[in-house]
Specification:
Blueprint lengths: L2 E5 L2 E4 L4 E8 L8 E6 L6 E6 L6 E3 L7 E6 L4 E6 L8 E7 L14 E2 L3 E6 L1
Parallel strand pairs: 2-11
Antiparallel strand pairs: 1-3, 3-8, 4-5, 4-9, 5-6, 7-8, 9-10, 9-11
Length: 124
Amino acid sequence: QVQLVESGGGLVQAGGSLRLSCAASGPTLSIYTRAWFRQAPGKEREFVAAITYGGGKTYYADSVKDRFTISRDYAKATVYLQMNILKSEDTAVYYCAARRRDVIDSNGNRYDYWGQGTQVTVSS
């Protein structure tokens, strides 16, 4: 069973930066597209960014485009989310996800594995 573990969350002031990491373990060769989602209090989970295995194609939600960057280290089976120019509305629990197909999808129901989440709090 694939396991995903996020790290890197914390408290940061508006305008600051954080880098989240998501390390995969287990049969990692079975997972392809990796993604980040987030869920703020009282809100539904929303898609943030995704990256394919082949070619490293990326896709972002409009709300984070040009501020967040997703990347992956194939050797470490780790995906990163570099978050810059953070805003108070970025405050949420951030979850990493993985799927067994190499197709980007913003629908979380398409993903097969999930991490436990890491809290990001942006103070204004």
